[in-house]
Amino acid sequence: QVHLVESGGGSVQVGGSLRLACVASGRTWDIYGMAWFRQAPGNERQFVAAITKSGTAPAYSDSVKGRATISTDSAKNTLFLQMDSLKPEDTAVYYCAAGSGNGSFHWWGQGTQVTVSS
Length: 118
Hints:
Layout: E1 2-7, E2 10-13, E3 18-26, E4 33-39, E5 46-52, E6 59-60, E7 68-73, E8 78-83, E9 92-99, E10 107-108, E11 112-117
Parallel strand pairs: 2-11
Antiparallel strand pairs: 1-3, 3-8, 4-5, 4-9, 5-6, 7-8, 9-10, 9-11
């Protein structure tokens, strides 16, 4: 079992920045890929960004491309998401996810709220 805990959410004004973190514990040697998803009220959960645990092959959704940077600190089993130029539509609960391969994610964190206001 892998346990994921997110942090770094909060309230920020339009155009501001936030850095989310997700610490993995437990059977971390089973993790191959990690990702961020988000869910706004009334909407389905959507993909934001993904990366391998070793920090390679970053991928982004079109909605955040150019404004977000995903990275890892594999020694600390930590995933990061730097979000810049935040917009009101970025408001959501952000979830960390991890998987052992083939693009699926088996483990999920509890989420951290990000609120962007003008």
